[in-house]
């Protein structure tokens, strides 16, 4: 092979440096003061100009690469600084500092997401929204401070706004804004016109069904938002939203299709029924927490983040039909474009969907022009444009997983596939091995940062998952599309799609149970960057044959050396264990073994995932007896985790019936599994194998104490 031929196979990385610089500089600018980001943009901009000036006089090695990296840094820093300045501008900052109660005018940005809450507490929803106006209520007002700044009604001073020129003045009914030097607006009714992003936390059920684009007003209290994004405030809403008008027809259509997909998946078992919408459109609202934990443990999280893989599956199916019909490149690209637009609307423009759609659109241009090698520059251009357009994407984990998975498929998978084929591996097997390995290798740093572990089972788990992804995605899309006109057909398609989804659940479940399948690793951004640096260093070093051979020898030595240790010391739990106290946070969950794979469980802790994880780790497959000492949330919240995938023969509870919400929760869960429930008192006992379970207290009821449920615990 000639050098020219070899070079023709090299990916086009000319825009990769610019994309990476834009991304990293935007991410850094989200956490630093605006002045620091502006100064960075100015200094780097001068450096970029100097590099270009030098290049005009004489050749500079890798000059255009250096210039593009500097330009990306300028773009990322400047764009983010502008958005952060808007985020931190007055008067929203003043109202947030004062925790002001306001009536807010909002436009919904994304589907409401349920937040995990303790049993007995109302379901909380998180809603991303655009803030278009606020009106302080309950007599709260903001008046000009000395020197033209903004002063809250209680006398605290707030710096003058230099972002939007608004100059609030005191008004008997709230806030009025008179024209200021910067072009402010006065509203006689006290309304302040603003443009900012907010996150709404609400518990009223009417927030659940809101669609993106819906205009509404809501009352609540403005609270400070966390750093690292562009949200100016957190609105703790009280009461239901008041809707104004309707969302766009596209959002309404998408809402109908997504609701139809959820209805079609309703009759399926909880695990595949909750996973299928996540695989298809990234809707994880019904995803079982245990499945989510298993996906994290096995490195399969990227499957429920809509990415280029989902777009590729949908477009690939359309392209296959178009090619079968002998359509030309431009017609094929047009048909794929229609499918792409429909899929983006169906999946909603979340960060990963926006990136996947942009990547798909640029890829279609490359397809129509007959230039498939343009895929890598298309990805780099998409990342650059999207981060400049919305710098908040730079800190989004789903966006990172989507970009990295696609990068692995474009940059690593072809080389690894060819290397395996040269080593004698059949073409199909080489492709099947290279694709999941490349995607997992690229996503590894982000997954490690999120989970604090490095998965050793990720590659085999993703390899086993490959055959099920495309059928599940296509059947799920089909179920969503036909659901408005043929509900029975949608239910049948969802039932078919539930089988490959169930396979993915099984792969994740048993992969998560592999002993020592996950190694501890530093979590957070530092852990992700550390593993990323190690991965890049390994890729560079592995270009040498000696390094590859050494890595193979070390891996084999670790496996062979660990095998005798695993045979002698079987790991956790140790042989002969007789009691285990699970680490579930606040609350309790205690296991007492009564036979192989069987244990008495005393309480279930506050969360289902933690309880299930503990029982799995101890190999508990059956629960002859579940004892509930009392009905507080931190003792019964994990009940579903104990029941998940296990037989439970009986439940015994305290005779004290309070709190009622906890007792009702236990009774409903047991009734759903047809498990008998018995309230027991002192003197009750049961022998299970060699273990005697006996109630020894309390000897009598205690009333009027500081906590009757606690003091009447078994």
- What is the first-to-last residue Cα distance? 78 Å
- How many domains, in number, for the residues? 5
Mind summarizing the main beta sheet?
6 strands, mixed
Mean pLDDT: 79
Helix content: 40-55%
Main sheet: strand order: 14-15-16-18-20-21
Structural class: alpha+beta
Radius of gyration: 29 Å
Q: Roughly what fraction of the amino acids lie in strands?
A: 15-25%
- Low-pLDDT residue spans: 1-8, 141-186
Say how many strands there are: 23
Outline, from the CA principal axes?
globular
Total of helices? 23
Keywords: Cell membrane, Membrane, Transmembrane, Transmembrane helix
Transmembrane segments: 12-31, 37-55, 303-324, 330-347, 359-387, 393-412, 433-458, 464-485, 492-512, 524-542, 549-569
Protein name: Competence protein ComEC
Main location: membrane
Detailed description of the structure:
This protein has 714 residues and is an alpha+beta fold. The chain folds into 5 domains: 11-87; 92-247, Nucleic acid-binding proteins (OB fold (Dihydrolipoamide Acetyltransferase, E2P), Beta Barrel); 254-521, no CATH class; 528-568; 580-711, Metallo-beta-lactamase, Chain A. It has 23 helices and 23 strands. Helix 15 runs antiparallel to helix 16 (487-512). The longest helix is centred in the middle third of the chain and has 26 residues, at 397-422. The protein is globular and about 95 Å long.
Report a brief summary of the structure:
The protein has 714 residues and is α+β, with helices and mostly antiparallel strands.
